[in-house]
Specification:
Blueprint lengths: L1 E2 L1 H7 L4 H8 L3 H8 L7 H10 L4 H4 E2 L7
Antiparallel strand pairs: 1-2
Helix pairs in contact: 2-3
Length: 68
Amino acid sequence: MKTRIKEFRARHDLTQEALAKLVGVRRETIVFLEKGKYNPSLKLAYRIARSLGSTIDELFIFEDSDLE
């Protein structure tokens, strides 16, 4: 899964640490999400999208290979 978290985070001038605090996770979680190494729960995806003024569909790009 690819994400656009880094792009949206930059638009809002947020550091990884600041976004992590907003959504209640550690900075490392944001790092892993941005690198595509962690799939968030629906609840976390929603909190991130809401914090960035976006939707889950805009932030997270699912590919066919993600379904396998």
